[in-house]
């Protein structure tokens, strides 16, 4: 039995564009291409796609995934190895869930208090986060921007990085609160947060309107990015994307 690219996209949650990209880089060729130019996939390709997605969830880049797939012989043994890594990742995510829940509880308990007294232990804000994932994604999708960002990051001290991480975490929570309250993405308060987000991005590289919209779309389409946002609040990736589109249309176009 064979499935069209549209059917595989629907089943897997991977966009057709991503599947075509996997074909172009030799990671996931279709079983065959029809006379109409459509790609078709059979069971072997679906199993290979499952492996790719598992390794993406584990933080591997496309080049690394290609190397793993080229070297492996026994599919069951490969899946066993992935299973062990997934269990380790499950433990990390459990820690991350506790981290975010603790932060929300502390912020709710301390509403109205001075900002410096809201968080009992600032280092707890970052327990369970894996900062290498976003870096790997950026390197693959925007290599020139990634190189510019890398050069900037190399100039930052550990204290600078900690402060930046605190700001990003706090901003995600604030935007999630707007979403929970049903605030429209074009609302001035939401757009003020997105302006701060854009200026934060510009510390590392300066996207135009199209590129900034592309970043927002990546938050939604890429499973790892979307998961990172939705760990804070379900639907946050889509809400953030829509707010970024509104910002790009009104401020960057």
UniProtKB/TrEMBL annotation:
**Superkingdom to which the source organism belongs:** Bacteria
- UniProt key word Heme: no
Give the keywords, sorted. Answer: DNA-binding, Repressor, Transcription, Transcription regulation
The HTH merR-type domain is annotated at 2-71
The record ties this protein, via InterPro entries, to: DNA-bd_dom_put_sf, MerR-type_HTH_dom, MerR_fam, TipA-like_antibiotic-bd, TipAS_dom
Q: Which PROSITE patterns does the annotation name?
A: HTH_MERR_1, HTH_MERR_2
Gene that encodes it: skgA
* CDD domains, alphabetized: HTH_TipAL-Mta
- Pfam families per the UniProt record, alphabetical: MerR_1, TipAS
Instruction: Report if keyword DNA-binding is assigned.
Output: yes
For this entry, the protein name equals HTH-type transcriptional regulator SkgA
């Amino acid at each position: 039995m064979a499935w069209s690219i549209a059917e595989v996209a629907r089943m897997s949650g991977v966009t057709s564009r991503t599947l075509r990209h996997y074909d172009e880089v030799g990671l996931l060729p279709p079983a065959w291409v029809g006379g109409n130019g459509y790609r078709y996939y059979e069971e072997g390709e679906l199993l290979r796609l499952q492996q790719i997605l598992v390794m993406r969830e584990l933080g591997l880049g496309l080049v690394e995934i290609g190397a793993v797939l080229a070297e492996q012989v026994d599919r069951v043994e490969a899946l066993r190895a992935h299973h062990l890594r997934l269990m380790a990742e499950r433990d990390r995510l459990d820690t991350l869930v506790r981290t975010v829940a603790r932060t929300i509880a502390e912020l709710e308990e301390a509403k109205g208090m001075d900002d410096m007294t809201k968080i009992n232990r600032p280092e707890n804000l970052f327990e369970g986060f894996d900062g290498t994932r976003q870096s790997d994604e950026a390197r693959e999708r925007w290599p020139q921007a990634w190189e510019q960002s890398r050069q900037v990051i190399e100039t930052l001290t550990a204290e600078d990085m900690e402060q930046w991480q605190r700001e990003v975490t706090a901003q995600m929570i604030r935007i999630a609160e707007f979403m929970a309250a049903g605030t429209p993405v074009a609302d001035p308060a939401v757009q003020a947060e997105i302006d701060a987000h854009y200026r934060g991005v510009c510390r590392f590289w300066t996207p135009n309107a199209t590129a900034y919209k592309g970043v927002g779309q990546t938050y939604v389409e890429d499973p790892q990015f979307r998961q990172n946002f939705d760990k804070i609040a379900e639907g946050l990736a889509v809400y953030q994307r829509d707010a970024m589109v509104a910002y790009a249309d009104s401020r960057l176009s």
